[in-house]
């Protein structure tokens, strides 16, 4: 009986962990997951940044080519035209 209960609990932990990992990698439209996302991603009205980025990277979302963050590192990815004129 104990072994069945332990097996069920371990199975539940695996399912919960898999669900958490899926949520973490959902980057929304025009975004993609990267194990080494730049910490100095461009966003609407951001000042020019040095190229290449000299800050360390971290796992997270990046915008696809041609897109920038709407507000900050965590905002949705939009085109630069949408920064000026809205979606």
From TrEMBL:
It comes from the Eukaryota. Residues 1-18 form the signal peptide. It comes from Anopheles coluzzii (African malaria mosquito). The keyword Signal applies. InterPro entries: Ser_inhib-like_sf, TIL_dom. Keywords: Signal. This is TIL domain-containing protein. The lineage of its organism: Eukaryota, Metazoa, Ecdysozoa, Arthropoda, Hexapoda. The keyword Signal applies. Residues 27-83 form the TIL domain.
């Amino acid at each position: 009986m104990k072994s069945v209960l332990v097996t069920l609990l371990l199975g539940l932990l695996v399912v919960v962990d898999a669900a958490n990992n899926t949520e973490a990698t959902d980057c929304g439209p025009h975004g993609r997951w990267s194990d080494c996302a730049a910490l100095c991603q461009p966003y609407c009205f951001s000042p020019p940044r040095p190229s290449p980025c000299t800050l360390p990277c971290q796992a997270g979302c990046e915008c696809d080519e041609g897109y920038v963050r709407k507000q900050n590192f965590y905002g949705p990815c939009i085109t630069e035209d949408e920064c000026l004129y809205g979606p």
